[in-house]
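Q: what does this look like with zinc ion bound?
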Amino acid sequence: MKKSGGCCLMGTLGVIGGPLLCGMLVFVIAMTTMVGLVSTTLPQPWRKSVESWMLGTPQPVGSETSDNAAAGVGVGWDGYVDPVDTNPPLGIPLGGVPYYGCMFHDTAYSNHTGADFPANVGTPIYTTMAGKVVWAGENGPWGNLVVVENNGYQVWLAHMESIQVDKGQVIPVGELVGTVGTTGNSTGYHLHYGIKQKTDGGQVWLNPEGSFAGAEYVKVECK
Ligand SMILES: [Zn+2]
């Protein structure tokens, strides 16, 4: 087949549409590439509310630092160990290639205990670990909270819009547990993802970055 000009891999299109179509195609490809290069800018329409939360706005001290036991709604340890899947948390609790904002212990929170993922309201949230749902409901500063426990680990998924599981339910890894919201002590739509580990002396928050790779997300600026 004869290829027209320097146009593209799409020789057939080139023959049919001629130089005009080729030019448009090159333009579209160029624009797509440019958009791809600046994709770390948060997409509208949720950019404004997320920026108010993420980009240097002072946050209430202690908003995500405790299990809220003082309020009488603390999330304790159930002791559940799944008979089949005892793998620790792995991956990101959102589908696709999500945006990832503030780091563990970011400067906007004095005692932040997890990783924050800005996302559209209603975005599905999936558990990164099989286990038993030991909390599913409203919990003070955490808002609508789901906690999944297995083999000495707890996965905390906070500020949800809706919750799709019930307390006491045993779920496999990857199960839909709720959707992204901005409930509790949150000022923009995002998922707070925390991992807690039981220790001999008590418990410790782990850095969730230890359970997912850089290629799995698009980093957004967080001051
Ligand atoms: Zn957070």
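The CA atoms of residues 126 and 176 lie 4 Å apart. The pocket of zinc ion is lined by residues 64, 112, 114, 116, 192 (CB under 6 Å).
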